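Thread: zinc ion complex, take 2
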Amino acid sequence: MNPMGWIVAWLKRWKGLPAGRVEDRRCAQAAGGPWHPPAQPNAVGKFSGRSATFRVGWLIDGSGGPIRQGVRLDIMDGILHRITEGSATSRSSFEAPNDPAGDLSECTVLPGLVDSHVHLAMTGSMDDGQRLRLRQAPVEVVFRTIQENLREHLRCGVVAVRDGGGARGNALRFAKGPGRRTDPAIRIFAAGRAWHRHGRYGRFIGRSPVDGLRLAESIVQDDSPCDLVKIVNSGVNSLTEFGRRTAPQFSLEEMTAAVQACGRKGLPVMVHANGEEPVGIAIGAGCRSVEHGFFMGPENLRRLAESGVVWVPTVVPMHAYGRKQDPSDRRAQVARRSVDHQMEQLQRARLLNVTVALGTDSGSPGVDHGAAVVDEMKLLVAAGFSLAEAVRCASFNGAGLVGGGFGLLAEGRPATFAAVPGDPSGLPDSLRHVRAVYVDGERVVAAG
Ligand SMILES: [Zn+2]
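Output below.
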């Protein structure tokens, strides 16, 4: 095919979004519009590097649709050029892959994953002393920890993380530092230091507005090179009193002004909020995502569905607490009841078509970077999501929060994917044994 013919065919094949579900369109709109494919081949129509053919046993494409079996992926210049499936292209008719790594016929391929809520500068250790030492450690030590945490993410197929902040803003400093020398494969979207009201919860992940200034004014004055803004609008969940609500930290008026100020700077807002009122304020203000959302109630779930605001439910920290403490411990019992309640909210959210993005809050006590993605995905499945839907929460929906074309394996999209051994029935656990991770067609993780 001549170059122009190829371009025309390519454009015809490109599908901007998986068909059929309203939330797909809403998600893309909220992310700033549908993803547009990069400029395609150069003037003479040739591709360079990052081109390969893969035989794939099973494909979960990130759309939430059916799992496909026996698929061939043709990659050109880091882009998924063609996906071929069905009897006409049975395995026997596949050409030999041009790279030994191209034989993934015993593997399941899924999009590179996104953990939409992490704290890279923190450790998942339950040891309070270790956690405190890291909070006070020199920046070089923290940066080494961040590098190790990123490697753990990548080993589990995670290719992008959204960092919810730290007191010293070290994850943002790491991500933006000119000397970053780590897996460039993982994209980091960092909030830097979160905003909280003086005297309220949030000191260890951020700062309060400048004396005499309102929240919005403080955000306007801030010149940190953050990718998004994190605002804390409630306390944390009680481990002594089930379902205890805390008052909002900021009023609807303050939060709305803050979200608008961020909008003028081109920055989306993630809001930590538990309980009906704090969550209601976050949604009403037009934030990009509600983080945690424990005990938000059915009315807020309906508003999430209507507004397209994304929910990042982070069940796994509470689950870890309930599991690892002494079972007779009252706090563990409260944690387990809180998990049950959150799972009920998730069931309802699924029926309402709320856009849910998987986030783990990794770096919380008992929540290890990377591995927690597997646990959170299992919790989504336990709450009633199909495997393909849970993968979608961890790929397409997360990618929608940070922008970019990854998170969906469709023609014209980046060849950014993970391969896990065996058929899909091994998921999510098989993510602990990822065979390979590719980002834009380049292999960044190879097993063994
Ligand atoms: Zn967090």
